[in-house]
Amino acid sequence: MTISPALIYGLTGLALFVIGLAGLLLCQQLLRKILAVNVMASGVFLFLVTIAHGSGALTDPVPQAMVLTGIVVSVSSTAAALALLCRIRESADHRDLSQKKGER
Amino acid sequence: MTKVGKERTPHNRGWQRLPIMALLLLFLAALARAYLFPGASAAGLAARVDASLAAGGVGSRVTAVLLNFRAYDTLLECFVLLLGVMVVWSLWRPDGAESREPAAGAILASLERLLVPLMIMVGSYLLWAGSDRAGGAFQAGAILGGAGVLLLLDSSPLLKVFPKRGLVPGLCLGPLFFLSASIAAMAWGGNFLEYRSPEAALIIIALEGAAAFSIGLCLAALFGGRPPEREAGDGRDRPSRDRGEFR
User: Fold this and answer.
1) Helix count (H) and strand count (E) of chain A?
2) Of A37, A103, B112, B116, which is least packed with CB atoms within 10 Å of its CB?
3) How far apart are CA A95 and CA B212, in angstroms?
4) What is the pLDDT of residue A97?
5) Cβ-based contacts of A62 with chain B (< 8 Å)
């Protein structure tokens, strides 16, 4: 198997997804969790664009369409999460999950 | 709020992360293996899309997928955007968000005068180009949303052009038009969301226009973050700030 640019992009997308997943699981602050979900989404988009290009000269339009709608939907879900975060900060006076469950 | 900006890391948490890290590395390895050695079903859908492109009504393959072959996805995604706006609006509290005052300056104002007409033009071009090459409703909507964000940043007087009562109907226009067109397709003898070839081009262009308008408006409304205020006499005290909303 030769190293092609598509291979690098695909593996980078997978790595971004797992890095984002690690951030989602390991970070305590809610804002970092939101950012981690966005990193995961970027990894998925990169991967989808890569596999759309993967099969030779004929690009696959279905993953491209999924990326197009996915970007817009991820913006909207990020906005909803940020609104939730602002509301949590206003009402509960803490920004991370650690204070709710005691010291963990 | 003493620990703001600092990750809380007690001394005994470093080793607790190790099993999770190891599991994630295994997961990454499994994903990479599945990517590098795909199975037999990894041929993709490009050939099938090309085979049925003539019935799709538009020349662009991505647009045909978005608005015809997989229109169900796109319909639901339009509603997801609307849902996002509803979530953000229902979480809005008028007494929160003190830090929303933007630093409006001469640079922003002149940038806005330069860029907003250009963005509207580019967005319209992308919408028009979407029928036979790269472009389409989501790209056009994203650029229109960017123009809206730019206007919201210094609460431009141009926002007054847009009537306050028109915001909610404008947000709903795309999804509802999409839904009614797909139900109307049943009346013409097709299935739900099935556009037949002769009319398909016209329906798709109209759908794209409405969807792009609503997508742009939704994105700008998500950035604005606050619902349009009701007319006088609703009893709530009203902050004097006008920033960050459609007026």
Assistant:
1) 3, 0
2) A103
3) 35
4) 59
5) 44-46, 49, 65, 70
Q: Express each pLDDT in B5-57 by its tens digit.
A: 444 554 456 777 888 899 999 999 999 988 888 776 666 777 777 777 777 66
* DSSP-assigned states of every residue in B216-234: HHHHHHHHH-SPPPPPS-S
Range of the domain at B69: 59-92+102-224
Whether residue B7 lies inside any domain: the answer is: no
B77/A73 Cβ within 8 A: yes
Q: Does the residue B71 lie in any domain?
A: yes
CA angle B17, B18, B19 (to 5 degrees): 100
Half-sphere exposure of A88 (CA within 13 A, CB side): 16
Number of domains in chain B: 1
What is the tens place of the pLDDT at every residue in B145-161? 999 998 888 777 777 77
Report the topology of domain A5-92. Answer: Helix Hairpins (1.10.287)
Neighbouring C-beta atoms of residue B176, cutoff 10 Å? 16
User: What is the pTM for the complete model shown?
Assistant: 0.79
Do the domain assignments include residue B35? no
The reply to whether B83 falls in a domain is yes
Q: Is A98 at the interface with chain B, CB within 8 A?
A: yes
From chain B, pick out residues whose CB is under 8 angstroms from the CB of A57.
none
- B96 and A86 within 8 Å at the Cβ level: the answer is yes
Interface residue of A4, A47, A60, A99 to substitute, partner B, most B CBs within 10 Å: A60
